[in-house]
Amino acid sequence: MASHKFKVGDQVRLVKLTSTNTVEAFLNMVTTIDVTRPEDTWEITRLLPADSNGFQYHIKGNQKGPERLVREEQLRPI
């Protein structure tokens, strides 16, 4: 049985991915979060169950702003 790669409290970096999902691609385009800044660190705040695309997480950044929902392949350990 597969399990989450990260746990609550882990520090990670966000990786920009191109999406084939139209809605995801649009949200990535209009998001206020600039994932091209490699110095930004994020903290895992919640583990979510797997869907058809794999595990998801809630993360919060070291900068001000709301939490964000991301998929596991968008994250890299620090």
Number of helices: 1
Mean pLDDT: 80
Given the helix and strand composition, which structural class is it?
mainly beta
Radius of gyration: 12 Å
- Low-confidence runs of at least 5 consecutive residues: none
Report, as a whole number of angstroms, the end-to-end distance: 25 Å
Sheet with the most strands: spatial strand order: 4-3-2-1-5
Q: What count of domains describes the coordinates? A: 1
Q: Let me know the largest β-sheet.
A: 5 strands, antiparallel
How much helix is in the residues?
Answer: 10-25%
SSE string, helices as H and strands as E: EHEEEE
Shape: globular
Hey, roughly how much beta strand do the residues contain? 35-45%
Could you give the count of β-strands? 5
What does this structure look like?
The longest helix is centred in the middle third of the chain and has 9 residues, at 22-30. Strands 4-3-2-1-5 form a five-stranded antiparallel beta sheet, with no helix packed on it. It has one helix and five strands. It has one domain (11-77). Helix content is 12%, strand content 37%. The termini are far apart. It is mainly beta and 78 residues long. Strand 3 and strand 4 form a beta hairpin. It has one helix at 22-30; strands at 11-14, 42-51, 54-61, 68-71, 75-77.
